[in-house]
Design brief:
This protein is mostly helical. It has one domain. The protein is globular and about 65 Å long. Helix 2 packs parallel to helix 18 and helix 10 runs antiparallel to helix 11.
Amino acid sequence: MAHGPLTTLARQWARMPVIARIGAIYVLGRLITTGLLSWAAHLSGPMSRFGADADLGRFVLGWDAQWYWLVAWAGYPSVLPLTESGQVAENAWAFMPVYAYLAQAVGFPFGSWGAGAFLISLVAGFFASVMLHRLLRERIGSTAALWAVAFFAWGPLAALFHVGYAESLFVLLLLIALDLVARRRFAWVYPVIAVMAFTRPGILAFALYLGLYGILRWVRRRTDPLPAAHVVHIIALGALATATGFAWQGFAALATGDAGAYLATELSWRRNWGAGSDGFIPFEGWVQGAQFWFGQWGMPQWWGPIALVVLLIVVAGALIFAPQVRRLGPDLRLWSASYLLYLLAVFFPQSSTFRLLMPLTPLWGAVAVPRSRGYRIGVLVLCVVGQWLWIYPMYALGNTFWQVP
């Protein structure tokens, strides 16, 4: 019986080792993203921050990548810059050192910080894909886990695997830490936390996750034994994550002599959106943001907080009751809830909102659970469309006062 080329291809795919399949998915995804970024470079005009002669190299160094480059080149300021009104201006203290200096080291043989940043983001994205499959395969099955990898590698934020941002490295470290906790290899989590804490903000969410995980283990101790050694590790890891989560504020205070240096720096970005001048109040940012955006959209501002409450109820309901999410296990649901609560407490919703959702990567597993091939292909198509909807305004249009040097 003759077999068509698709049947032959499917059989060859089935015989490939899983790591090879992950690699093929990731490489094909990178080719698609490269094509979209090239298209954005072609469409970039004189009003874009990248100019009419934009290329992929300039995209690597665009937006926040400039801050990481500045950290590697000049370090952190000992005197906080001020605006004309005397408020703390945007500065390098908002950006953690691991990615910045690691890119400097990797890029040294190439004579380019940007080359190092690109390689770290690209390689970290691949290993994050490997870790995502490892984390999900025993929960939803290997095939569904491969689809989750495809959604992650081809997803709306896939450009972050090509540019000088710390997200892909942070997600890799996060997935390693979540997998180690799931497998109860707690001793290996300590160094991962220490590195993750200084890669990008978010380690306090991991501290909250460890606390909730400890409570879950305690509640289930009769059916899932909780040895004393596990109790010690969970408490110690939570303490380490909490301490390192606040350590950067201490470093900024010591270096500048200003106890509020880090928070004032973070709030300086909010002022671009008409908020942040009255100091940091937990959970206030999303309320202000909801009011701001509904006003921008021509709707009554008081609708914003109402919509925010509805959104929170929907998200909480999905994490608790949605069967696809429940398939991921309570630990990944606890992480997702912890990180969302962290964002709700500290973030002001603006142009970086979608990028900051990348640590929720394990939830791609829930998206991959339905077995319909048509559904999965449809999601993959939407992922690529989502890439362009993010790449086009950020890179083809990207208009700002700060031009790429």
